[in-house]
């Protein structure tokens, strides 16, 4: 944690990605914003985070470091999960047994992260399709259930996290790109290649940081999280 604290002194942007046991409710395409939030809140409240990726970078896009944190809390045979999502994570190389044996406890990690963040001002958070990422982050930092409405959730995000960007929203508002693009496709459109393995939180957060650094020069959509 000391390395993250040190890096934050000069790199005030944090790109995040999470890997988690999947969605417990299937949200219909014509669901209202509040129904989408309710389904997300239910899933995040019932499930345990498996992996968190953090990439710290500065306003010029220079990356200070990437951290991939594995959490020991999730028990594959006992805890709430979406079996298809678990199979997907395994196909992409996540060793859930090893993560449980060697990972850190969620409570302990976020206790330390919360203290570090309170010492640092004006952090900018960056996500891709980030409703679940932000929700797990908020849950971890507060140690509480998510707010009961999407409006209260948005207010909590603004109060606790501050500035938030979602690349999927940014892509949808820029001519020549589209919110339908996945992270890999969006990066390719911008001439960027991945470092590491897709659907691992560290690699995804690092690619998110580099895509944002390039997109920030051409478009701006602060404060909107895709999916909410």
UniProtKB/TrEMBL annotation:
Record GO cellular component, one term: cytoplasm
Top-level EC class: hydrolase
Protein keywords: Cytoplasm, Exonuclease, Hydrolase, Metal-binding, Nuclease, Nucleus, RNA-binding, Transcription, Transcription regulation
Record GO terms (molecular function): metal ion binding; poly(A)-specific ribonuclease activity; RNA binding
InterPro entries in UniProt: CNOT7/CNOT8/Pop2 (IPR039637), RNase_CAF1 (IPR006941), RNaseH-like_sf (IPR012337), RNaseH_sf (IPR036397)
Compartments, as annotated in UniProt: Cytoplasm; Nucleus
Gene3D superfamilies xrefs: Ribonuclease H-like superfamily/Ribonuclease H
EC number of the protein: 3.1.13.4
Obligatory cofactor(s): a divalent metal cation
UniProt superkingdom: Eukaryota
The keyword Translocase appears for this protein: no
Catalyzed reactions: Exonucleolytic cleavage of poly(A) to 5'-AMP
Assembly and interaction partners: Component of the CCR4-NOT complex, at least composed of CRR4 and CAF1 proteins.
Family: Belongs to the CAF1 family.
Known function: Ubiquitous transcription factor required for a diverse set of processes. It is a component of the CCR4 complex involved in the control of gene expression.
Designated name of the protein: poly(A)-specific ribonuclease
